[in-house]
Amino acid sequence: MSFKEKAVSWRQEVHIGKTKPRLIKAAILLICFGVLIGMAWYYSEFSAKDCAILAGICVLTLAIYMIDMPVHPVIRILFALVIPLGCFYTFETLTHQMSTMIELAKRLNIAFYYWLFLFVFFIAGRTSISMAICVSAIAIIGVGNYFVVMFRSNPIVPWDIYSFETAMSVADNYVFSVDWALAEHIAMFILMLIVGVRTNIRLNKKILRPILTVAMCIPAYFYISYLWQDNLERNTGLNDTLFNAKYMHSKDGFFVSFILDIHFLQIEEPKNYSDEYALSLLNEQEVEKVETPEELPDIIAIMDETFSDPAVLGEFETNKDYMPFVHSILRGEVANTISGYTDVSVLGGNTANSEFEFLTGNSMAFFPNGSVPYLQYIRDGISTIVPQLEEYGYTTYGTHPYRAKGWNREFIYDLMGFDYRYFQGSFPFEDKLRNYVSDEADFKSILEWRNNTEGPFFMFNVTMQNHSNYGGDFDNFDPQIVAKFKNTYSNKYLNKYLSLMYETDQDVASLLSELSQSDRKTIVVFWGDHQPNDYVVRPIYKEYGLDFDNQTYEQQQQRQKTPFFIWANYDIQEQTNVEISLNYLNILLFETAGLQLDEYQTFRKNLWQGQIPMMNAVGYRNDDGDLVEYDDAPEEIQNLLNEYQNIQYYRMEREYSKKK
Questions:
Q1: End-to-end alpha-carbon separation of the chain, Å?
Q2: How far apart (Å, rounded) are the C-alpha atoms in residues 521 and 298?
Q3: What are phi and psi of 597, to 5 degrees?
Q4: How many degrees, rounded to 5, is the angle at CA 247 between CA 242 and CA 252?
Q5: Which residues share a beta bridge with 484?
Q6: Spatial contact of 358 and 585, defined as CB atoms under 8 Å apart
Q7: What is each CA distance from 29 to 15, 62, 324, 473, 555, in whole angstroms?
Q8: Which of 143, 298, 433, 525 could be joined to 438 by an S-S link, Cβ 3.0–4.6 Å?
């Protein structure tokens, strides 16, 4: 048959499928693309270029779906080979530029994609099924990861499965906006899905399928063994330090990073660990005896949700001061205060880790980045300052005006031994600002509980008012603050965030004013659990020409700072410009209240006032004032950190199992 005859024959076989099911599915596809274009247009400025790209992908997808034509087997195989590459590129570019990934990581991620597609193909026996499953799954994970990065500034990690219920409890408060870039990525996934379904390659020999499926476990074993090797970074250049999950994923890619993270699901036993060694470190501490005050002060510890001062990232102008009272405390203008900044271990989320560090004195530096001890590691019990205070006769409260199951708090607070635990639905006052109980109502509830409690009172309270998202308009929230920049046209998220800081500031001033008139000695320790997500402070970064994906170590640490103060309604020794990490904060609180430190607090006090005055999950500050990454710590500091880790591991993993 001549080429002309073949062409005529081919044209005769080409036709448009007009069956009712196909027309319905085509209409659904068209609606999906219409929704994508509409959402991108709604949530971002109109772009003729991006709109044309989306329309082009839509037309191509519909043409491939509707037109039936003979496709040579070689072309089908070529499509089957190209689609995993397309999925890899589309997935990764959702959250970062491909140029940030090292070449070995690219090859390893691509190998994973091909392994996955082959594995499912051998099970299903048809590429139409395997492509549908794999492309859909990758698209769902990729888009989900995009929103996780957007909302909490860190990607999905294996232990997020433990916090899934918590994530779902607040998901309805976020705005899942779609810009042009996201719309184009979703459209590309849809295109690859349609092309993949049309490849239609079969593995007809059924006896081969189980054999090949089992055989695929062999390369999987060697792949995982390679990634879990000792000294991986030194041997391969892959980043497995875990100090910054977002950075790690941008260098290693999502699936390689995810597999690396699985290796850290369990607490790693410290170097030189033994129960006897850990106990000897505690027993050798020379605890300084203090005389118990005649009148024990009430202690109110408030960890305010996402309370921070974005000006630490770079100064900017506003129409009025967004935290005038707290700023006056930080300047030392309010009597009987100790103030400064805490260096927290989390950013944009994982609030539970900040309360964990304060209540236990443990450091997140010794856990995998992104992990949440409340969910992963606490099963039988946990040592905190709560029983210490109860030995003094304190009545203890653990409170949070949101759902009890969030971060497993209901269970954890019970293990911690709080006398009373109150969550959403059981606060005396629950007036809302936006969708959450306001700080004003929260603080009024604290005063109600305090006034109805005889004897010394301890309250640990985690607020909820300032939780993200910062989009949307509300009848019960009138933003007061407007930020002014030269290099950005949109400050809407930052303006609303700063307006929430203003509301909290006013409520803090009212709380301390009320307590200052009380004849009961009272101490308030107040701090923010973390800074907001990247998208909130993006105008500041743009103003100063900074890049979220290429920050210096010092810039990363600036993202960990939140204001704190300790205030008393009686005379205490005042301090300003104090820098402290949350694992040390309960020491400063106990000393201010005149309470006895235990052996663990004494050990940490020696670090705090000695060679490690600040440490968080990102790194530490040495006694010369320099910020240092843990991998660069000298041997002397490594030994001190190892001692700390040994004691912490004992208290986390052994203490309660021994008691049982």
A1: 85
A2: 6
A3: -80, 150
A4: 80
A5: 317
A6: yes
A7: 19, 7, 53, 32, 44
A8: 433
pLDDT digits (tens, 9 = 90+) for 68-115: 666 677 888 888 899 999 999 999 998 888 888 889 999 999 999 999
Q: In whole angstroms, what is the distance from residue 38 CA to residue 34 CA?
A: 6
395 with 459: CB under 8 angstroms?
no
Instruction: Give the integer Cα–Cα distance in Å for 482 and 407.
Output: 33
Angle between helix 20-43 and helix 48-66 axes, rounded to 10 deg = 170
Q: What is the pLDDT of residues 469-509, one digit of tens each?
A: 898 889 999 999 999 888 776 788 999 999 999 999 999 99
Q: Which amino acid is at 134?
A: C
Cα four-point dihedral sign 362, 366, 372, 376: negative
d(CA 506, CA 443): 11
543 within 8 A of 316, measured Cβ to Cβ: yes
For β-strands 67-68 and 436-437, DSSP reports them as unpaired
Q: Which residues contact 321 (CB under 8 A, 6 or more apart)?
A: 327
* Distance between CA atoms of residues 195 and 193, nearest Å: 6
> Are 420 and 395 spatial neighbours (Cβ–Cβ below 8 Å)?
yes
Separation CA 380–CA 660 (nearest Å): 9
Beta bridge partners of 15: 68
Concatenating the DSSP letter of every residue in 521-536 gives -EEEEEEES----HHH
Question: Residues with Cβ < 8 Å from 539, sequence gap 6 or more?
Answer: 316, 483, 485, 487, 488, 490, 491, 494
Encoding tokens for residue 136?
Answer: 């859909």
**Cβ(615)–Cβ(557) under 8 Å?**
no
Of 456, 446, 517, 518, which Cα lies nearest the Cα of 296? 456
Alpha-carbon gap, residue 561 to 311, rounded angstroms: 10
Burial 134-166 (b: 16+ CB within 10 A, else e): bbeebbeebbebbbbbbbbbbbbbbbbebbeeb
